[in-house]
Amino acid sequence: MSETARQGDAQAAGLGDQVEGYLLWQATIAVAEERAQAFVEPMEWLTTSQRADVEQRYVADSLHHARRDLERIAARCRSLRGEYEARYQELRRRCVGWAVAVGACLASVTAAALSLIR
Question: In terms of pTM, does the model score above 0.90?
Fold first, then answer.
């Protein structure tokens, strides 16, 4: 695969991640707004402006907590990725080591068998 194709794939993946993040955040906003409306609905004594203010504060608080939760989750994902990459590298080194060892053993057995035949 050419370098240009790899860069194009990386850009497409990055764009896909951005779109997914945008859609997730828009859904979070919609849920926060719905919950805010449901929260103020039984408060019949509020004026229209008070109701709007309470809804706005509820949405802002919900989005603040959602952002904090998403940042914590993203940090954990980065941490896990690092751990998994380190483990993968260790397993890869071990696998290569075993393959080299088995290859060396097979070569020595083959050499010994050939020396016995002659």
Answer: no
